[in-house]
Write a structure and sequence with these properties.
The chain has 261 residues and is an alpha/beta fold. The protein is 49% helix and 14% strand. The chain starts with 7 loop residues before the first strand and ends in a 7-residue tail after the last strand.
């Protein structure tokens, strides 16, 4: 039986890479998928991909920094797809790639507005709907290994994601009595559009090949390869499913075994 059969799952931040892989994977596992992002054209592309494969999808253009838009998304999802069983918080604002000494805190606020307050606004809207319906659901935060690595020029992004890790632990305790599970997935390097662009950028800066950059990254990963987006999405699907029913308040590293301690 599919892992998510007859469940409705909202996926935010549906775009090229992990967001698409999560949405398509959830549909493949039997979920009715509600797709949310700010890019209309890409939402329609992923929605078409799901429906052409025989799945159910609803695309809703949403800016999660607008609490009213989050409420509207959840209301529409409930009306069109039925009871909501899962939420994947994948929407994010990327780092601004500046050292802390050169930080522009207005830019930090922009990152936090999406990664923290936007994410939590959508989460609260879903939680309130689950509580009204009495749904024992699952909420998954896509976090990042940047919270552990201390990567230079990414302190704004890492700090925002670190705030979510702390919030998850508290929410897990508060919402556990309602049967609502809250967990985080922390991907490391993922082979997809983002890492491909990164390898090309570093290769240009260092006058080496993109393959050499990729090989250097791979050398630090015990499993010997950079996990593709599709494989990392599997960890999210696990947390959404009943296989993870006894698990809440946890964070799972999904990085091929790369260690930073």
């Amino acid at each position: 039986m599919p892992l998510l059969e007859d469940r409705t799952v909202i996926v935010s931040g549906v775009g090229p890479g992990l967001g698409q892989s999560i949405a398509v994977g959830a549909a493949r596992e039997g979920a009715r998928v509600v797709l949310a992002a700010r890019n209309d054209s890409y939402l329609d592309e992923v929605s078409d991909q799901i429906t052409q494969a025989g799945g159910e999808a609803l695309a809703v253009r949403t800016d999660i920094t607008d609490p009213t838009a989050c409420d509207d998304l959840v209301s529409l999802a409930r009306d069109r797809m039925g009871e909501i069983h899962g939420l994947v918080n994948n929407a994010f604002s990327p780092p601004r790639f500046r050292t802390f000494a050169d930080a522009d805190f207005d830019q930090w606020r922009e990152v936090f507005d999406v990664n923290v307050f936007g994410t939590l606004s959508l989460t609260r809207a879903v939680v309130c709907q689950m509580q009204r319906d009495g749904t024992q659901g699952s909420i998954v935060f896509v976090n990042t290994m940047a919270t552990k690595t201390g990567m230079p020029e990414q302190s704004d992004y890492a700090a925002s994601k670190g705030a979510l890790l702390a919030a998850v632990r508290t929410m897990a305790k508060e919402l556990g009595p309602d049967g609502i599970r809250i967990n985080s997935v922390l991907p490391g390097w993922m082979w997809g559009p983002g890492v491909q662009i990164y390898c090309e950028m570093i290769a240009y800066q260092k006058s080496i090949t993109a393959q050499e950059v990729r090989d250097e990254i791979t050398s630090r990963i015990p499993l010997g390869y950079i996990p593709p987006d599709e494989e990392c999405a599997g960890a999210v699907l696990f947390f959404l499913s009943e296989l993870a029913r006894p698990i809440t308040g946890q964070s799972l590293d999904v990085n091929g075994g790369e260690r930073f301690d």
